[in-house]
Design a protein that fits this description.
Elements lengths: L9 E5 L4 H9 L4 E6 L9 E5 L11 H10 L2 E4 L10 H22 L3 E4 L19 H18 L3 E6 L1 E3 L12 H10 L5 E2 L9 E3 H14 L5 E4 L8 H14 L8 E2 L2 H11 L6 H16 L21 H18 L5 H5 L1
Parallel strand pairs: 1-2, 1-4, 2-3, 4-5, 5-6, 6-10, 7-9, 8-11
């Protein structure tokens, strides 16, 4: 279904300070963007900041302000979500389920198409719910499934956008907040990753943030709704072995002395490594290890993700080489921010 979109629509954007939301905001320069934020104010040309709370009735606004906002908005882009695997389940469900329901209700009231950012990992129905320590990825995934189902059953004109792991900008590597895959790559560059709980041929699926933003903005401009778009590397996603090679090549290029980590199974971690080594670590280090274990568990599948984002007008499908270059750019940005590599070394 296609809806008529004004040349310069008023867009309600949630999660504008997050990874995807910030990249979307940078591309909507010809629109008036109303950024609904809970804590971090967002500023910019043609940006209107509204302090609100998705988990409260009418976003925490008084009824008149809510109605006025609904009358003004033409398009809704919903990026806000809790994505951490160690966050309390009630907090995750408050924002990801109840908050998404509130955004859906607003889109219905406004008569505006809704572009909802979910995750490609909703397809991981066979993810184990044990052996991941304190990290609970299934809480996050269940919340995203519930939000999707409510939207698909609502009859509201909407799109579901399902990115895999989101990394930094494809060219600069820049990102508003480092993600779980950055932590793994960072440990590799520090020489602090003796083992990686993945099989060497496992696909590590990620996409750069600018690609996800281009898909969302492309859908906003086209006025196309009723679609489910998989923004993934798919069959072109690199293997875990290739990811390690890229990290080692980058680090050694700048003189870092790095050892190749050993690939191990999750079963070995549960039976041998956790009881002997992990359980004796400080709680903070245990949590980081559990988060890494949870993320790598998401990649453990024989089948690559579907990939359909290139069906959006104006969006080009990335090649395997493009994805590798984007990953290297993200690692380099991380290394520079964390002072693992000096800017003068890159310039040289």
């Amino acid at each position: 279904m296609t809806v008529t979109v004004k040349p310069s629509p008023v867009v309600l954007l949630t999660g504008a300070s997050g990874v995807v939301g910030q990249a979307v905001l940078e591309r909507l320069t010809d629109c008036t963007v109303v950024c609904l934020t809970h804590n971090k104010p967002v500023a910019g040309p043609q940006v209107v900041g509204v302090r609100g709370d998705l988990t409260r009735p009418h976003f925490g606004l008084d009824r008149a302000a809510y109605e006025e906002l609904a009358d003004r908005v033409d398009v809704v882009v919903h990026c806000a979500a809790i994505t951490g695997f160690s966050v309390d389940a009630s907090l995750t469900n408050d924002l990801n389920v109840r908050g998404s329901a509130a955004v859906l209700a607003f889109a219905r009231r406004a008569g505006a198409p809704l572009h909802h950012v979910s995750t490609a990992f909703v397809s991981r129905q066979d993810l184990t719910r044990d052996g991941l320590g304190g990290a609970r990825p299934e809480v996050y995934l269940d919340s995203k499934r519930l939000a999707e189902r409510a939207i698909l059953d609502s009859g509201v004109a909407a799109n579901i956008i399902r990115p895999s792991v989101v990394i930094g900008d494809a060219v600069t590597g820049r990102i508003s907040q480092f993600q779980g895959l950055h932590a793994i790559a960072g440990a590799l560059l520090r020489g602090a990753l003796p083992m990686l709980p993945l099989q060497p041929d496992t696909r590590v699926d990620f996409v750069p943030q600018d690609l996800v933003a281009d898909v969302i903005v492309g859908l906003v401009r086209a006025g196309t709704t009723g679609g489910e778009y998989w923004v993934t590397g798919g069959e072109d996603a690199p293997t875990a072995e290739r990811i390690v090679e890229l990290g080692l090549d980058l680090g050694r290029r700048f003189g870092l002395e790095l050892d190749t980590p050993r690939f191990v199974s999750h079963d070995m971690v549960d039976r041998l490594i956790r009881p002997v080594f992990i359980d004796s670590l400080p709680k903070g280090q245990q949590r980081r290890f559990d988060d890494m274990l949870a993320m790598t568990a998401l990649f453990q599948t024989a089948e690559p993700f579907r990939s359909s984002y290139h069906l959006v007008p104006g969006v080009r499908r990335l090649t395997a080489e493009d994805l590798e270059d984007a990953f290297t750019a993200s690692m380099l940005h991380y290394a520079l921010v964390k002072d693992l590599i000096r800017p003068s070394e890159v310039a040289a």
